[in-house]
Known about the structure:
It comes from Trifolium medium. This is BTB/POZ domain-containing protein. InterPro entries: At1g04390-like, SKP1/BTB/POZ_sf. This protein folds into two domains: 1-83, no CATH class; 100-145, no CATH class. Helices cover 68% and strands 0% of the residues. It has helices at residues 15-27, 37-40, 44-63, 67-81, 85-97, 101-111, 115-121, 129-144. The protein is globular, with a radius of gyration of 17 Å. The relative contact order is 0.10. The model has no long low-confidence stretch (mean pLDDT 89).
Amino acid sequence: xxxxxxxxxxxxxxxxxxIKLVHWFYSDELPNPxxxxxxxxxxxxxxxxxxxxxxxxxWLGEFWIMESIQEACxxxxxxxxxxxxxLSIKIIKMAYKLSLWKLVDIAANLMAPSYRQLRxxxxxxxxxxxxxxxxxxxxxxxxxx
Length: 145
């Protein structure tokens, strides 16, 4: 990002996220992803494609201290996140890379019931050790409740 008096501000987000950001700047509303039957009939890749811009904007909102867009994105992400285990797996990786710790924690809690299955299937092998520890800790907490 450059100085505020500069003609150019460089933002490291996808084109889809940028479109949503511009829409939000002009209307103070964040467009929602597909919902209902459209959402439930999408495969996990399509769901991730639709949810990724909101994760990016959540990070940008935190980085630029734009609480209203961060909260709007957070609400969208939370409403969609528990629809698929695979979606949680992909979102937790993305959130971890962007240091969105609150989202990492929530995704880890959603994945916690499946920890043993994920470990036994080898799906956790591609994860960073710290991320596996997040999920493992959430699993331990779940078992103690």
